[in-house]
Amino acid sequence: MAEPRNRYSTVSLILHWGIAALVVTQIALITASDATEGPISREFVSVHKAVGLSILILTLVRLGWRVANPAIPLPQGNPRWQRLLARATHVLFYVLLIGMPLGGWAASSAAGREISWFGLFNWPLLPLPQSRELAGQFMNMHELGTKALYVLLALHVIGALKHHFVDQDNVLHRMIPFIPRRP
Ligand code: HEM
Ligand code: HEM
Questions:
Q1: Could you give the CA distance from residue 49 to residue 104 in angstroms, rounded to a whole number?
Q2: 84-93 pLDDT, tens digit each
Q3: How far apart are CA 1 and CA 107, in angstroms?
Q4: How far apart are CA 160 and CA 177, in angstroms?
Q5: Is residue 53 within 8 Å of 105, Cβ to Cβ?
Q6: For residues 77 and 29, which has the higher predicted lDDT (pLDDT)?
Q7: CA of 93 to the centre of ligand 1 (A)
Q8: Pairing of the two strands 121-123 and 115-117
Q9: Is the pLDDT at 74 greater than 60, yes or no?
Q10: With a 6 A CB cut-off, is 25 part of the ligand 2 pocket?
Q11: Residue 49 and residue 115: Cα distance in Å, rounded?
Q12: 163 and 83 in contact (C-beta within 8 Å)?
């Protein structure tokens, strides 16, 4: 019988850690924008938009890759509720990694603000009615998404550390292969 896969493919690893780094960059860019004023502050938001839309594209690529290369099941040793919680966290991550950029894109579109993709070209705006109120509603959703993202991130990291230090299994190894594999 074939040996079960015990780590994610290199493409999955690059996408997981690349997108995670970009999400942290997003928070850093907004923090930098909040800490500054004038054109510099607006430049940070402009880069935030370009990075956010890149996350949208990369997440769509990632989902396509995932369909072709299904995830490895979690160890059967964990109770069902924990496996369901892990699964729900992953699904909600994907919802946010798509929903947050869409919400930001929709807000900029309703506000009639151009989106420059790293100064290379103007990202097309969505065909939405021009309305500050609508833009504000999309931004409220974006902020709600931020809160949900922090909760998911906390659950996700606590879960990963629990696998490693409490269950002492190979779940962290398969996402960080240079952590030695346990027998
Ligand atoms: C913003 C940052 C992060 C995001 C958005 C994120 C998202 C995800 C998603 C969506 C999956 C499911 C992959 C799939 O099956 O399709 C996953 C798996 C995983 N992540 Fe993260 N992650 C982040 C940060 C981290 C960090 C910091 C750690 C380590 C402490 C980590 C450890 C893991 C592990 C071990 C798995 C594999 C779980 C399994 O094998 O079922 N992630 N992550
Ligand atoms: C996964 C991608 C994204 C993440 C994780 C993200 C995250 C965030 C966070 C954490 C904030 C601060 C919210 C707060 O103050 O509570 C924010 C604000 C904002 N985001 Fe995003 N964002 C993403 C994508 C986008 C995109 C694609 C756009 C637009 C095209 C966008 C436009 C904005 C704007 C205009 C603000 C308000 C900035 C200000 O304070 O002036 N975001 N985002």
A1: 7
A2: 999 999 999 9
A3: 52
A4: 14
A5: yes
A6: 29
A7: 9
A8: antiparallel
A9: yes
A10: no
A11: 7
A12: no
Residue 123, SS3 per DSSP: strand
Chain centroid offset of residue 179 CA: 23
pLDDT at residue 3 tops 60 = no
**Two structure tokens written together for 106:** 């929709």
Structure tokens belonging to residue 145? 């998404």
H/E element, 115: strand 115-117
State how far the Cα of 66 lies from the Cα of 62, in Å rounded to an integer. Answer: 6
Measured between alpha carbons, how far is 138 from 107 in angstroms, rounded to an integer? 5
In this structure, the residue with its CA closest to atom 27 of ligand 1 is: 157
> Does the beta carbon of 49 sit less than 6 angstroms from any atom of ligand 2?
yes
Note the pTM of the prediction, 2 decimals: 0.95
Percent helix, strand and coil across the chain, each to the nearest 5: 70, 5, 25
